[in-house]
Amino acid sequence: MTSIAANLQAVRARIFAACAAAARAPETVSLLAVSKTWPASAVSDAAAAQQRMFGENYVQEAVAKIAALTTQENQELEWHFIGPLQNNKTKLVAENFAWVHSIDNLKAAQRLAQQRPAGLPALNVCVQVNVSDEATKGGVSPMTTLKLAREICLLPNLHLRGLMTIPAATTDVATQRQQFSILRELKENLNRDGLNLDTLSMGMSHDLEAAILEGATIVRVGTAIFGERH
Questions:
Q1: pLDDT digits (tens, 9 = 90+) for 36-84
Q2: What is the fold of 3-21+28-226?
Q3: Are 81 and 102 in contact (CB under 8 A)?
Q4: Vertex 80, ends 76 and 81: CA angle to 5°?
Q5: Start-end of H helices in the chain
Q6: Whether the predicted pLDDT of 178 surpasses 60
Q7: Taking Cα atoms as reference points, which of 65, 73, 78, 80 lies closest to residue 126?
Q8: Other C-beta atoms lying within 10 Å of the C-beta of residue 150
Q9: How do the domains of the chain map onto residue ranges?
């Protein structure tokens, strides 16, 4: 067993235990392996250990990796873009990814909708929300999320699935849960307003347990799978 395979096994065990603590079925939480900065060979090792969902932050690096790994045996790999969206890179994102987690403005959503190739299914998207009000982080405020979500729902070629957040880093579990609860409650409020959201993309290597307790459906894990980034 490779170290990546062993790490994946350990992360899956953490997810299983967190789901048990939250009285949730394990299949309600998907593991997104964050492979940014890691070579295609590391993704291949993870794919050999039955990992199918991969998250990337850097467009050109990701597109090269996707091209290198597009083979018959890797047809089931699903690529998620989780980084900041630059206007000059939206076309590559629209053409190469199944999901975008990091939409925080209408212009980016419009460009993705216009540039999504006709032969591909609708692009699954999440609105990024800045739950900790940090100036250094992307994301809309909770107060303006509904407006952007409604605007995205009107665009063709996009399927609004839910919300994503990167909260302030902390080791305090109560604070972790409090930040994640903001996103969970926001999703519940948006669904009461008529949206049909099913996704909460939240939780990483250090706080996935707290995220699962607060309803995460996708956890984005990099370091615990691939190791510290170089």
A1: 999 999 999 999 999 999 999 999 999 999 999 987 566 689 999 999 9
A2: TIM Barrel (3.20.20)
A3: yes
A4: 150
A5: 3-21, 40-48, 59-69, 90-96, 106-115, 145-153, 173-192, 208-213, 223-226
A6: yes
A7: 80
A8: 14
A9: 3-21+28-226
Kindly give, in sequence order, each residue whose CB lies less than 8 Å from that of residue 147, ignoring residues fewer than 6 positions away.
none
Q: Tell me: the pLDDT tens digits for 120-151? A: 999 999 999 999 988 888 999 999 999 999 99
For residue range 190-206, list pLDDT tens digits in order.
999 999 999 999 999 99
> CA–CA separation, 167 vs 114, rounded Å?
30
pTM: 0.96
Token duo for residue 151: 């605007």
Give the pair of three-digit tokens for residue 26.
Answer: 């394990």
Name which of 56, 59, 55, 52 is nearest 73 in CA terms.
52
